[in-house]
Amino acid sequence: MFGSLKDKLNKTISKLTEKIYSKGDSIESTQLNSEINNENILSEKISEKKEEKTNETEKHDSLIHESMKESGSEELMIENFEKKEKLGFFDKLSIAKSIKKVLGKDVILTDDDIEEVLLEMEVELLEADVAYEVVEKIIESLKNQLVGIKISSKDNPEEITFKALKKSIKEILSQDKIDVFKIIDEKKAKKEPAVLLFVGINGTGKTTSISKLGYILKEKGYSAVMAAGDTFRAGAIEQLDEHGKNTGIRVIKHQKGADSAAVIYDAIEHAKARGINVVLADTAGRQTTNINLMDEIKKVVRVTKPDLVIFVGDSLAGNDAISQAMEFNDAVNINGAILTKTDADAKGGAALSIAYSIKKPILFMGVGQKYSDLQKFDVEWMIKKLFSEDEPEKSFGRQF
Ligand SMILES: Nc1nc2c(ncn2[C@@H]2O[C@H](COP(=O)(O)OP(=O)(O)OP(=O)(O)O)[C@@H](O)[C@H]2O)c(=O)[nH]1
Predict the structure, then answer these.
(1) pLDDT in tens, 350-385
(2) pTM for the complete prediction?
(3) In CATH, what is the architecture of 180-387?
(4) Assuming Cys at both sites, which of 8, 242, 243, 308 could form a disulfide with 211, CB separation 3.0 to 4.6 Å?
(5) Termini Cα distance of the chain
(6) Burial grade of 227 (CB within 10 A; 0-12, 13-18, 19 or more)
(7) CATH fourth-level superfamily of 104-174
């Protein structure tokens, strides 16, 4: 997940690190670890003991005898040493290879020092579908953290660059959080259904995400109903119906071509009458360029007054998903986003950019084709995905 973005970020870290070393006249020093040093002490001690043994008096014997008791026997002591000596030799070889660079002197980076690296990073991130304004923001943040700051020869340049880039990315991802389940609980306390309206262009995963969220809500003990508000696309009503059967969630529907707002309104009345906690309202996929359809979704919002308008974007669409989110946000003021298909090795740019571009949080991420494959979005989870070698998550639960 986000493989290419991860590689590009790691590349930036190593180039910035290299820049610091080259500026600090890095010197290479073989850092033998304490074990090797202990090894030397041990070998000196044993050879001393062996020497003493050849020309020693009775008195030494008792001393040796003492130390043998500690290690069990002289043979064992020598044998241990032989073994250790062998391991010590190979250890020495391998550790001698682990040359650690250290800075020869303190470093203060200038804009010029990192100009080229940041330019390369800009190209790389744009290629990964990261929005231009987001790339600019990352560059600005890195400069603020690295330029003009003294990096002492005792510091670890890898750590400094890693932390700086991680902080930059975290700033991008962090928008005002919305806890969907908290909103649902607040409405439940008032004995009203929480109404969640899903919008987006065709094929992004609205119907699927609604069904996944319905499945997860049920798992959490909430009651839900799904509104077949996509009365436009052939098969959309049947598709949601199928999901309803699979998840055991009631679907409120009218015939194809019916008024979307009317279907959703009926679902809300149904939920109110039966004390159902959540209405998950599907809508038809629409191109933001289609004025009539954009006017229709504005009417749906006016009539149904949803608690959350959730934009569903396809992470594989990269920058397009970001511009769509911005256009839907302008039209109906979305509250948050779901980014789908992140399991399909999306470049990662949309995940990084969408929240910053619309200044609204990512609520969930679609991470697969199972009903449980809807991951509540968390900045730390994303940072871990981008910066650590964690195992890919195994998905569970039933397939669609
Ligand atoms: N791999 C993967 N596929 C997904 C995910 N979410 C949705 N899909 C697939 O994307 C395709 C489109 O999903 P739908 O839910 O039908 O999309 P939609 O937005 O309702 O489409 P329209 O009704 O045309 O607007 C389906 O094949 C889904 O299985 C996801 O997180 N991962």
Answers:
(1) 888 999 999 999 999 999 999 999 999 999 989 988
(2) 0.79
(3) 3-Layer(aba) Sandwich (3.40)
(4) 243
(5) 21
(6) buried
(7) SRP54, nucleotide-binding domain (1.20.120.140)
